[in-house]
Design brief:
Elements (H helix, E strand, L loop, with lengths): L1 E3 L5 H8 L8 H13 L3 E7 L3 E10 L2 E9 L8 H12 L4 E4 L4 H7 L1 H7 L1
Length: about 120
């Protein structure tokens, strides 16, 4: 299930974000977390099963929700966690259009949410 970011989860968020290729630098990582904490149009969510095992971060601009970050703990990959996060995000923002950024486009295309919806 998706849950919203809280300051208490900052270290977990930084750990998961560090798996993103563009978030390897510590200063960049701290700057990204600060954006999620301070800017209203930046929203960060965790995927929680027993533990927090993934995260997905978006920016909201009107009717557009752009996926900035998506990361899953390596020991939980290839189990559908990322796709489940995308489906849940689509439900949260059902009245908006989800789009990827250049760093998330490959995963976004792999999920093919429209096809997934057609099968359900």
């Amino acid at each position: 299930m998706l849950i919203r970011y809280k300051k208490a989860f900052e270290k977990i968020a930084m750990g998961l974000l560090s798996f993103m290729p563009n978030e390897k630098d510590l200063k960049r990582l701290q700057q990204t977390i600060k954006q999620y904490e301070t800017e209203d149009d930046w929203q960060l969510f965790f995927w929680k099963e027993e533990d927090l095992i993934g995260l997905i971060g978006v920016t909201i601009n009107g009717q557009i929700v752009e996926i900035q970050h998506i990361s899953v703990n390596p020991s939980h990959r290839q189990q559908g966690v990322g796709k489940n996060m995308m489906k849940s995000l689509k439900q949260i923002y059902e009245d908006k259009q989800l789009i990827p950024n250049p760093h998330t486009v490959a995963f976004f295309d792999k999920c093919d949410l429209e096809e997934a919806d057609a099968k359900e």
